[in-house]
Design a protein that fits this description.
With about 70 residues, the chain is an all-alpha fold. The chain is built from three helices and no strands. Helix 1 crosses helix 2. The model has no long low-confidence stretch (mean pLDDT about 95).
Length: about 70
């Protein structure tokens, strides 16, 4: 099994997605945040403190994955 960097962040992203009705596995959660961070020309960014803020930041990336 491949090691996942930032496992707690990935679990939190997964939890926020589940609250909104979207199932994503941990590697998908990692990819969503990597894509978000990359679009801001950054490495792995810290997650915001509030779940609602986190969802605002990742929503378009989650929805994009559902369309592909």
């Amino acid at each position: 099994m491949k090691r996942i960097d930032y496992p707690n962040d990935c679990l939190r992203i997964q939890s926020v997605c589940l609250e909104k009705g979207y199932w994503m596995d941990i590697p998908e959660c990692k990819e969503v945040w990597e894509n978000y961070s990359s679009d801001l020309a950054a490495g792995w960014l810290f997650l915001p403190k509030k779940d609602c803020d986190l969802w605002e930041q990742i929503e378009e990336y989650v929805l994009k994955r559902r369309i592909e």
